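FIELD: query
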Amino acid sequence: MKKIIIKIIKLIKLNNIIPVIVQNYFNKNILILAWVNKYCLLESFFFKKTCFWSRSKNFCWRKGQTSNNIQIIKKIIFDCDLDSIIFKIIQKNNSCYFNTKSCFNYIL
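FIELD: result
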């Protein structure tokens, strides 16, 4: 896994970001679509808690740091092009900042 992380880090340029799908480890529900840069990815990998890139505020933020809605990473999966990621996580409390289990709540 460390070799893959190093390869990913080399692919992610300094300011580039890649999408992350956050999925419940147990029931497979999709919780969040977020973004990471190489620093957020490294922090997520080493500390086993999700860290994302805020596109509006331009900084890394740790999920649950202020809300206590912590996500513990159990598995990190990369796609075949190494340009998108799935974090399989155990969710503590709600995942969405609207205080819901998932950010995906609107069905057409």
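FIELD: remark
The beta strands are 18-24, 30-36, 51-54, 59-62, 71-78, 85-91.
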